[in-house]
């Protein structure tokens, strides 16, 4: 039996990286692999444990068919290694830190994927983005406005499991694991 693709999406600052790190061990116990993305950002940059590559290296990997999924957002390029197809075919569940803007293309390629939308209260999200210190206040406000547009349309979409991360991370991890243990129909 093929594994399932779990597509985690949410706004920058919603806590996707924290959730993935906190859930890593219990997910591994359930036979779920967390994918390490390839990003055109320095590997030393604060944030997720991604493989940092130059734009030229990314373009080469993409041209050679090295990615199952790839997209561009916020001035960066993101790739999900083609190896996920092997893992899925072997029956492993695979969790991907995806892109809300690339959801339609991902659904076209993986029609049975489970979409998990990580949400967070707007005031909490603003504080997290300010504390990160990567963007100006104007950039943060623009990001929050884009988030509101994305979130409203995604919350109404069928087959999207909403996972609130405004409270303690342990509660978010527990809800994610319960959803995955119960199966996709129980999550949507």
UniProtKB/TrEMBL annotation:
This protein's pathway reads: Metabolic intermediate biosynthesis; 5-phospho-alpha-D-ribose 1-diphosphate biosynthesis; 5-phospho-alpha-D-ribose 1-diphosphate from D-ribose 5-phosphate (route II): step 3/3
Q: Which UniProt keywords apply?
A: ATP-binding, Nucleotide-binding, Transferase
Domain named Guanylate kinase/L-type calcium channel beta subunit: residues: 2-184
The UniProt record gives the binding positions of ATP as 10-17
Gene3D superfamilies attached to this UniProt entry: P-loop containing nucleotide triphosphate hydrolases
Question: What's its catalytic activity?
Answer: alpha-D-ribose 1,5-bisphosphate + ATP = 5-phospho-alpha-D-ribose 1-diphosphate + ADP
State the signal peptide span: none
Enzyme Commission (EC) number: 2.7.4.23
Q: What does the sequence similarity comment in the record state about its family? A: Belongs to the ribose 1,5-bisphosphokinase family.
Q: Which purpose does this protein serve, as stated in its record?
A: Catalyzes the phosphorylation of ribose 1,5-bisphosphate to 5-phospho-D-ribosyl alpha-1-diphosphate (PRPP).
Instruction: Report the NCBIfam families cross-referenced here.
Output: phosphon_PhnN, PRK10078.1
What is the protein's given name? Ribose 1,5-bisphosphate phosphokinase PhnN
Q: What's the source species for this entry?
A: Pseudomonas hygromyciniae
Lineage per the UniProt record: Bacteria, Pseudomonadati, Pseudomonadota, Gammaproteobacteria, Pseudomonadales
């Amino acid at each position: 039996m093929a594994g399932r693709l779990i597509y985690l999406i949410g706004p920058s600052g919603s806590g996707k990286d924290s959730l993935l790190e906190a859930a890593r061990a219990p997910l591994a116990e359930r036979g779920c692999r967390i994918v390490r993305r390839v990003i055109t950002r320095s590997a030393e940059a604060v944030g997720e444990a991604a493989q940092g590559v130059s734009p030229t290296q990314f373009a080469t990997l993409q041209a050679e068919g090295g990615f199952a999924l790839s997209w561009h957002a916020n001035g960066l390029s993101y790739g999900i290694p083609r190896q996920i197809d092997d893992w899925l075919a072997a029956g492993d569940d695979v969790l991907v830190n995806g892109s809300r803007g690339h959801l339609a293309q991902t659904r076209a390629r993986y029609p049975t994927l489970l979409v998990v939308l990580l949400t967070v209260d707007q005031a909490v999200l603003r504080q997290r983005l300010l504390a990160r210190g990567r963007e100006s206040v104007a950039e943060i406000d623009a990001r929050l406005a884009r988030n509101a547009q994305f979130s409203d349309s995604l919350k109404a979409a069928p087959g999207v499991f909403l996972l609130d991360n405004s409270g303690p991370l342990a509660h978010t991890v527990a809800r994610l694991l319960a959803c995955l243990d119960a199966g996709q129909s129980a999550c949507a």
